[in-house]
Amino acid sequence: MKFKQSFLYQTKKMLYASLITSGVYVLLALLMLLLSHILDPKVQFNGVIIGYLVFMLVSGIVAFVNNPRAHVANGISRRTCYLAFLAMIPTVSLAIVAEMAVLRLLFMDVSTELDWVLEFLMQSYQTGYLGALFLLFLLLLTINLAGFLIAGAFYRLNVIGRILLAAVGGFILMVLLPLFVVVCPDAAAALGRFLAEFVASYGSLSVLLLLISCLCGACGYLLVRRSPIRSVKW
Amino acid sequence: MNGIEIVQLTKEYKDIRALDGVNLTIQPGKIYGLLGRNGAGKSTLLHMIANRIFPTSGEIRMDGESVFENDRVQGRIYCISEMNCYDADDKVYKIWNWVQNCYPGFSMEYANQLAGKFGLNIKKKPRQLSTGYNTIFKIVTALATDADYILLDEPILGLDANHRELFYKELLANYAERPKTIIISTHIIEEIADLLEQVVIIKEGQVLLDLPIEEVRKMGYSVTGKKSEVEQYCSGRTLLGEEELGGMKTAYIQGEPGEIPAGLEAAALDLQKLFIRLTNS
User: Fold this and answer.
1) Which end of chain B is less packed: N or C, by CB atoms within 10 Å?
2) Which residues of chain A have pLDDT under 70?
3) Residue B239 in this model has a pLDDT that exceeds 80
């Protein structure tokens, strides 16, 4: 098994990309710092956490399409590639959490977002700073695997399947769900209370995120294990 | 080493049967020509050996082990085709670093040497290369891996005559240094005929022919002369095809020529002509 080669290859690529993302935030924060001194002292820079979540979602999506192709071309099975991918995600998530912590220290003056999100987590779940960072770590992990699963579903489905998945998913989220809330407010409230139980405590939220990660991970493997390799235009 | 054994291999797409119960043994240490018309199933076969797609049914085994999702076996196979597999944003030399990690026999020195001969700029990204140079990048990578089985699907796509000649020369030099199994799938039959040791022809998803090149060359010959004389000569012989021009006729006949009557001219049937005759419906 070429697990080590695959793990190093994937980790290197992801870390490089995450450092570029962090670099962009550093530049933006510096720009805000400069503007806040020149223009308005109340200029703030936010969106770091959302930015990293989007980064992880997109990375997961891209991983399904690119990784197996680059690995199979070099005689590495999809299974080995996927196992290395599963080992890579927590490594990179940890690195991103560390980057966020560094950014928070460097740019306290122009960015309170990291502060207030971490404060919110710490207060809501009666946990310390490291506990809050661990929740962010789990969130990054989960969203990356979810991205991989979404990409896998679209990759494996035929055209009609993709249209149905996108249309039905969109319909449920944008029409059915709001309609449900408006038409059956009591039931929606009860459902909301039921779902809130899963995020009520630090332990239950952590377990929920881990369960979702495991589910996405398992389904992701089922989609990738027999996926045909397709070419891309260079 | 038992080579690659292909047993009852079938691949179906929606309404097409790309391969239909193919049985074939690829022996180690030979240069194969995998020939067939467009859509015959050549690329499908090579992609399956390379674990890029999966069969509908059947097996492909190397030394008794299935080739599918098998790192150990796939580490001995390298395949190039029209398919672009690597990250388009990585430069050529960076891709070679990745290939070297996976194929211990990959020689960076040899790859750089070949790149120099072909004029390949290794600091460019694949998407910055022309069609021809993309092909060169792929064939240099394949030759440098030194894998036991090198599968080349349309390896001369977009290459000019000079580069094609250089490729044949380097391929033979590579093979001479360490014999390996090379499978070349191409439509430019005339050019590769002299390289081949074994010929496999695929027609409509099935193996039509699997013979050493010497036997293939003996499979037929042509006779040319006046139409009536040629027709008289052909009587009782298996005809592969014929062409007429004015009062003259050329007949392609199966088998070996015996005594040729005066007035008729016999010639060896080259591989391309034989291929055309055999695969014409």
Assistant:
1) C
2) 40-45, 109-113
3) yes
**Chain B residues bordering chain A (beta-carbon distance below 8 Å):** 47, 50-54, 69-71, 74-79, 82-88, 98-99, 101-103, 126-127, 129, 134, 147
CA–CA separation, B142 vs B163, rounded Å? 16
**pLDDT tens digits, A191-209:** 888 888 888 889 999 999 9
Cα gap B92→A61, rounded to integer Å: 25
Separation of alpha carbons B51 and A80, rounded Å: 13
Give the residue from B212, B152, B140, B213 showing the smallest Cα distance to B182.
Answer: B152
User: Above 80 in pLDDT, residue B106?
Assistant: yes
Task: Tell me which chain B residue has its CA closest to the CA of residue A158.
Answer: B14
Angle at B256 between CA B252 and CA B260, to 5 degrees: 75
Nearest to A75 among B54, B74, B83 (CB): B74
Domain residues for B193? 4-215
Q: Say yes or no: B44 and B154 in one domain.
A: yes
DSSP string, B142-181: HHHHT-SEEEEESTTTT--HHHHHHHHHHHHHHHHHS--E
Give chain B's count of helices (H) and strands (E).
10, 14
Shared-domain flag, residues B169 and B68: yes
Q: Are residues B184 and B227 in the same domain?
A: no
Examine the domain organization and report whether B229 and B101 are in the same domain: no
Please answer yes or no on whether A76 and B102 come within 8 Å at the CB atom. Answer: yes
The CATH number of the domain holding residue B101 is 3.40.50.300
Phi, then psi, of A87 in degrees rounded to 5: -75, -30
Q: Count the domains in chain B.
A: 2
- On whether both B13 and B105 belong to a single domain, the answer is yes
Per-residue pLDDT tens over the stretch B146-170: 999 999 999 998 999 999 999 999 9
Residues B164 and B98 in one domain: yes
**What ipTM was predicted for this assembly?**
0.89
Q: Which two tokens stand for residue A183?
A: 């038409």
Residues sharing a CB contact under 8 Å with residue B109, sequence separation 6 or more, in sequence order = none
How far is the C-alpha of A1 from the C-alpha of A76, rounded, in Å? 8
